[in-house]
Every structure is written in C-alpha cells, then in structure tokens.
Amino acid sequence: MQKVTSQVWTDTTQRGCNPSMVITDAGVVIIDTPQLPTKAVAMRQEAESHGDIRYVINTEHHVDHIFGNYYFRGAGQVVHHQGVYDNFMEVTPTLDSFDYAHEAIPTDDPEGEAIFPDRATYFADPNKGHIVFTGDLTLRVGNHTFELLHTPGHTPGQIAVHVPEERVVFTGDTIFSECQTWLMGSNVTQWLSALDRIAALDVDWVIPGHGEVVRLEYISRQRANLLEWVQAVSDAVAKGWSREETVARVNFAERYPVDIGQGYMMNHIQTLNAGSLWDKLTQARPA
To answer: What does the pLDDT look like over 119-134, one tens digit per residue?
Structure first.
C-alpha cells in the first residue's frame, strides 16, 4: 500500500476502488474495501497488524467499493449512508454486480476463486451497515476525527471522509483521478455541489475513488470533465440528435484511460455516460 501520511495508507494499484486505512492510537479505520478477494484478505491482515479494526466505512454502494466487506466480517462495525444501505450492490439494470465481481477473478485474482462465495452465500451476509446514517456523521477514534460528509451526485448515498488531523479527504468516486469518469445515473448538479464542498476543506491530500492521489487543485479538473460531458450532450440535444446518434457521436474516450483492469469497458462507459445524460436532458425539457 502507498503511504500518504504517517498514519494514512491507500492502494491505487489494483482493479477496483482505492481501498484505504487510517491507523489511530485506538485502532484502525478502513475506508472502502478491495473488490478482489485475496486483496481484501491481505488488507485485513495488514490492518489488524496495526490494531483492532474499529470501523469499515463505505463511500458508496457500487460493487468495487463494497464487495470486499464480505471478507471483513467480524472486523469492526460497517458504517455507511442510508443511500448505500438501500442501494447496496445495485448499479444499472443491465449490469449484474455479483457477476461483475466474479468476472474479474480469472484475469485479476485467479487465486481468489478458492475463496469467492457463491451468490446465495454472499447475499446471506454481505456485511452491510451496522451504523447507517443520513446527512453527515462524525466519528472519533482515539486521536483521530472522521467527518463523514454527505456528498451526493455520483450516487445518492455518496460520502467523503475528512480526517482533519491527517489533512486528508477520501472522496470516493466524486473524483476520478486521470481516468475515465463513470456518470451512469449520476446527478451532475449535485455532483458539482459535492465538489464545492470538498474544495472548501483545509487538506493537503485528496484520495480519489480511482486513480492516483492528488492535491485539492485537481477538483477543477473533475469539474471541467463533468461540465464538458453535459455541454457535449446538451449540444447534441439542441441539434435534435436522437439518443442513438448522441451515443454514437459523443465520445470522450481519448481524454483518459479506464482505471486498472477495465480497459474493455471503455465503450460501455462512453455509451452509458452519453445515453444517461441524454435521457436526463430530454426529460427535463418542457413539452
């Protein structure tokens, strides 16, 4: 794992989100769990070498941030927003999250097959929230404060985790650093407000949901990316392009690569982003 500060670690090198941990004088706090089984088991072992795991915090409900919870059963309390609890493992109607988690095993974690649960076993106890909240929540663990800030946009239950003592914020997928942004069913207006809220924090380091750790200035890059997507699809709608034409012609694939292990999803991302924005913009137009 990458050492960000003396007490903060993250891993930006594996398929899935950037799973992270904060070591306090009263135990360890996990922020998002690895999607890959062997990575999740290894992270738990590493965390427990520093003390008891006090909390496992999830920043969103998408599979790459929560699937690893299964391997943290019995290790601290799971904490997430009501929106994460309500939408746990739901992504889009066309994507089965369990299958999506499993398809990564042969290519990215073949040794994980031996400990990958079957569907019934997994959903019997995926290790969902023990502490479920609305709005914001502040936790105190030893000498560290964990401010769980509701920052909806990418997902309804999205949170950022601000640790002022370390001058760091974990944003989840509110920020994709130097890689393709997944819009899916996002609310871009809320997402922009979320970026404003994060930008107001007094931090040195931003740990994104995907991609390399960045400084606070990167928020302007993420904002520009969102606005350019909206503008491009808005222009398409204004020209009278159909949904099919928009999906075929609005494409930002050249901007950034897809995050680790998901290059084959590039066309899916472009199609999903353009199509979902077209749906929202055309629904918003007056009759």
So the answer is: 999 999 999 999 999 9
